[in-house]
Design brief:
With about 400 residues, the protein is an alpha/beta fold. The protein is built from 14 helices and 19 strands. The protein is about 40% helix and about 20% strand.
């Protein structure tokens, strides 16, 4: 199946991997699927494994702030020359296969990790799970399922159970599957029926300067990431690490070290506070709205939003209802970006004061106070560049 330049299925990627020496079979792979939180889980787990002394490759998407920033070794950017060599090797093997760019990239990333002798590779699904190119991986140490919600319904199905089936497709051995406890009831029941284990519920969650603290199974942990979903994402990563034999102390060190730009990221500058979040579906907006309402209960917010064409704008904006906010809609600078006037029209269903701007830069210029940018990861690079010029 092909859609929007993507092909769903694992056959071509498996063929590419075998043609370049089956690099996936030389790695301990932790595979992550889910609607929201995959990138956070990948960051937490990668930091934990590095703290425990394991050389670790991380493959997540999308790239947000720089080309290939989703490909890292030991939580650091990869060397461009090494990656180019891996891409060349995978690209040459792909001749005559009609492989997509993502299929070639998946094979190249695993080749790079194997060549660098990584002990573990933390791999995030691109879309779905069952038919995603990353699911061509032969063996997995663990399969992790983060929070499930409705998204990509044109491909994955328009109900939670259909989406669960796609996400569960990454599970090859149910005894090696762990599921986030942050789930709608239907998803929790679905994975429980499969016999999957669930990560524990975080307890005693407390906001502290610079992050949050919480307890898991009696152990206290701290993280630097904001947002109510983050303790749950950390719990899933910690559970995976415990299954791999990592100590609570190394888990504590890894969680405390995790940073993830663009996920409820707060930046202070010249008396202003900028909040950047790539949330782009209603469940993620619901969690983000909880954070905004708790932290900025009596603050008038300037919110800059932009969405891709396939996103549920009305559903997302409804989650922000009740905030004291002025909205500025922009068109994301990509082919799939939804027109700002279309976005503004749907924003007016919820908010009375809605404007448009030609770009994120124009939208941010002159704004004071607390400024929020959300709706698409595509907006965040331009927003960060503008903010950093002022720092």
């Amino acid at each position: 199946m092909e859609i929007r330049g993507m092909r769903f299925g694992t056959e071509v990627t498996r063929k590419l991997l075998d043609l370049i020496g089956s690099p996936d079979k030389k790695l301990g792979i932790i595979h992550i699927a889910g609607t929201n939180g995959k990138g956070s889980v990948a960051e937490y787990l990668s930091r934990i494994l590095v703290a425990a002394g394991y050389k670790t490759g991380t493959f997540s998407s999308p790239d947000v702030f720089s080309e290939n920033d989703g490909v890292r070794i030991n939580c650091r950017p990869i060397k461009a020359a090494d990656y180019e060599r891996a891409l060349k090797k995978a690209g040459e093997a792909a001749r005559g296969t009609r492989a997509t760019a993502f299929e070639i990239q998946t094979a190249a990333v695993l080749e790079l990790f194997a060549a660098e002798k990584c002990a573990y590779a933390v791999v995030e699904c691109g879309l779905g799970g069952l038919a995603d190119a990353t699911n061509a991986i032969a063996e997995k140490e663990l399969a992790l399922i983060s929070s499930i919600g409705l998204e990509h319904t044109d491909v994955l199905g328009n109900d939670i159970i259909s989406i669960c089936r796609h996400k569960a497709g990454i599970i090859k051995d149910i005894t090696r599957a762990i599921v986030s406890p942050l789930q709608p009831v239907e998803a929790r029941d679905y994975f429980a029926a499969l016999g999957a284990s669930f990560a524990p519920l975080p307890k005693d969650v407390t906001a502290v300067p610079g992050g949050q603290t919480f307890t898991l199974c009696g152990e206290k942990y701290s993280i630097r990431l904001f947002g109510p979903a983050q303790p749950y994402n950390a719990s899933l990563a910690a559970s995976a690490a415990l299954r791999l034999g990592v100590s609570a102390q190394k888990i504590r060190e890894g969680l405390a070290a995790a940073v993830l730009p663009g996920r409820t990221e707060v930046i202070a500058e010249g008396g202003n506070e900028y909040v950047l979040d790539g949330c782009h579906n209603p469940p993620a907006f619901a969690e983000f709205a909880r954070f905004l309402k708790e932290r900025y209960a009596n603050v008038r917010l300037e919110i800059v939003v932009g969405f891709l064409k396939d996103k549920d704008v009305s559903g997302c904006m409804e989650k922000l209802s009740g905030l004291n906010a002025v909205i500025t809609a922009v068109t994301p600078a990509c082919e799939r970006g939804r027109d700002k006037y279309s976005t503004a029209g749907m924003c007016r269903e919820v908010f009375g004061e809605v404007y448009t701007a030609e770009s994120v830069t124009e939208a941010l210029r002159g704004k004071r106070g607390t400024i929020v940018v959300c709706g698409s990861f595509t907006l965040l690079k331009e927003a960060r560049q503008w903010i950093e010029k002022k720092l």
